[in-house]
Design a protein that fits this description.
mainly alpha
Length: about 100
């Protein structure tokens, strides 16, 4: 039996019987809504420019560039989020 945040003994219920979601504290934070708005705006922006590029160039030219750009941005973003590019405590690069 695992203790919970509100003093209960079960993993998903408190002693007073209310089920708590692990995301309830997260949904109350303002930063989540700002980040969600940024994700939505950049998705719309990206789709708009993809559509404009497809009007000018063919799919064999646009989609590989779009795929490679997205993949590179995802790798760099993940590395930045996980802090894998900087030195660690022991001086080695990465984890």
């Amino acid at each position: 039996m695992l203790p919970t945040d509100c003093g209960g003994v079960e993993a998903d219920r408190c002693h007073h019987g209310v089920v708590h979601s692990p995301c309830m504290g997260l949904l109350g934070h303002w930063l989540i809504y700002v980040l969600l708005l940024i994700i939505i705006v950049t998705a719309i922006w990206s789709a708009n420019y993809l559509q404009k590029a497809l009007m000018v160039y063919g799919t064999t030219e646009v989609l590989p560039v779009y795929y490679c750009t997205f993949t590179l941005a995802a790798i760099v973003g993940d590395a930045a989020a996980l802090k894998m590019c900087g030195p660690t405590v022991d001086g080695a690069v990465g984890r």
